[in-house]
Design brief:
Blueprint lengths: L2 H6 L4 E5 L3 H13 L3 E5 L2 H10 L4 E5 L6 H12 L5 E5 L4 H9 L4 E4 L4 H12 L25 H13 L6 E4 L6 H10 L8 E5 L5 H9 E2 L11 E2 L1 H4 L4 E5 L6 H13 L1 E2 L8 E2 L3 E6 L3 H6 L5 H7 L2 E4 L10 H15 L6 E2 L1 H9 L5 H15 L4 E2 L6 H4 L18 H15 L4 H8 L3 H11 L4
Parallel strand pairs: 1-2, 1-3, 3-4, 4-5, 6-13, 6-14, 7-10, 10-13, 15-16
Antiparallel strand pairs: 8-9, 11-12
């Protein structure tokens, strides 16, 4: 941050929380030189009291303190003031503690002793959030259980778009590879919408025979076709007031596409064999793993329907393009499957985690979940190890995965991050633009990380 920028920040106040008075003073002086106003608190209790009495733009919070401690302070801060950015400082970073802090709402963490340049960059990023997601206070806590992880920039940008569109009634078209999380994203849109108290119905367009699809969508009247022994309510009517998720919309036959288009245009449905239309109030979210624009060009998908569906398009990136999300996703699924199968796993070994982040994941998050559930079932020790992974993962790369010296114990998130960056740079022949794209972060962030870790090349 330059001096001119510092002068623009005079009104911004940062609460520095650390039980080490000398460290607090040093941080206050550094931030003061950058043009920030600082207030200090020696404990979590005093921080909570201070923040309740005066407005702060950011909290710089030490994780290990006597009393209620940094993690509990973080939880209480986010409960009372969800949009308040909290930057964690710790000398005891592990995968578990860092991920726990991120899950509880911390936007970043720094390792002691602090790199002053990294501190300034992180404080600036927190005080000037880059997406509306940072200002969105009502994200349900159950999102963690749904596998929504947004450490990488591409996922944070995606969830920022979700936060913008969810409260509206706009039709959403979600595209992305199989297993990338399209249905999960549809769930999020419904849960964050004004329709969340009403039903969300789903229909997989590829799973219904073509001759029954219109009946499923619009319903039918008794005698409309052989086997129609009674009137049937279609999904559009059943979803009244709620959300209707049309999965694999690219598989919809052209005949049904024309009728769906009419419903979207007029807001009315006609049952098969019926004579009276019925008005319907339904929010449509659709998804496909097909290249839908190519389907339009080749005449397999109606152009007018495509434009009706893609009022607000969302593209879910494949897991190989958001590798920064793999460690926290792996930790999330490890905990979930350990509980499900009665295992007491404490984490993932560094060698196993190295294999996971180096793999390209053609099956995306669904494949990661399946492999981790299998690994949890097979595991015999306290950590999920490389031997618990299938040969498709361990055999794909030979012994080329870089490993820290202690390869058996859990690896810190910072070590994992450095290892990921080094490997990706090597794979991309040092091209930082391509590497940042693969990691799912901006080029500017990658350059800062390279400097922070002293990475050559």
């Amino acid at each position: 941050m330059d001096g001119r920028r510092g002068k623009d920040m005079m009104a911004r106040r940062i609460c520095v929380v650390d039980d080490d008075s000398a460290h607090r003073l040093m941080l206050s002086e550094v931030l003061g030189e950058e043009g920030y106003e600082t207030v200090e608190a020696p404990s979590g209790e005093e921080c909570l009291e201070l923040v309740s009495r005066q407005s702060c733009d950011l909290v710089l919070l030490d994780l290990k303190m006597p009393g209620i401690g940094g993690m509990e302070t973080l939880i209480r801060l986010k409960r009372s003031n969800p949009p308040l950015p909290v930057l964690i400082m710790t000398a005891y970073a592990t995968v578990q503690t860092a991920i726990a802090a991120l899950k509880e709402g911390a936007y970043d963490y720094l390792i002691k002793p602090l790199d002053i340049h990294a501190l300034k960059e992180s404080v600036n990023a927190g005080i000037e959030p880059q997406s509306d997601l940072d200002q969105f206070p009502d994200t349900p806590p159950e999102l963690d259980d749904m596998g929504i992880i947004a450490v990488s920039g591409v996922m944070r940008d995606l969830l920022a778009d979700v936060a913008r569109v969810a409260p509206t009634d706009a039709t959403v078209l979600i595209t992305g590879e199989s297993g990338s999380g399209k249905e999960v994203l549809a769930d999020v849109i419904h849960r964050l919408s004004p329709r969340s108290a009403r039903v969300m119905l789903r229909l997989n367009c590829a799973a219904i025979p073509e001759n029954l699809l219109e009946s499923e969508l619009f319903g039918h009247r008794k005698g409309a076709f052989t086997g129609a022994d009674s009137d049937k309510e279609g999904k559009f009517v059943a979803a009244e007031g709620g959300t209707f998720f049309l999965d694999e919309i690219g598989e919809l036959p052209l005949s049904a596409q024309a009728k769906l288009l009419r419903v979207l245009q007029d807001g009315r449905v006609m049952p098969v064999g019926g004579t009276l239309e019925k008005e319907t109030d339904v929010r449509i979210v659709a998804a496909t793993n097909r290249e839908i624009e190519q389907e339009v060009e080749e005449g397999r998908f109606r152009e007018d329907l495509y434009y009706r569906l893609s009022v607000f398009p969302l593209v879910v990136p494949p897991l190989r393009e958001r590798k920064m999300d793999i460690p926290p996703l792996a930790d999330l699924f490890l905990n979930r499957f350990s509980k499900r199968h009665g295992k007491a796993l404490r984490g993932i070994s560094s060698r196993a985690l190295g294999r996971l982040v180096s793999y390209d994941w053609p099956g995306n998050i669904r494949e990661l979940m399946n492999i981790l559930e299998r690994g949890v079932i097979l595991s015999r020790g306290g950590f999920l190890g490389e031997e618990d992974l299938p040969q498709s993962i361990t055999g794909a790369l030979g012994d080329s995965v870089p490993q820290p010296a202690d390869a058996r114990q859990g690896i810190s998130l910072k070590e994992m991050e450095r290892m990921l960056i080094e490997r990706t740079l090597a794979e991309k022949a040092g091209n930082r633009t391509h590497a940042s794209r693969t990691l799912g972060i901006t080029r500017k962030t990658l350059l800062a990380k390279i400097k922070e870790y002293g990475i050559e090349g």
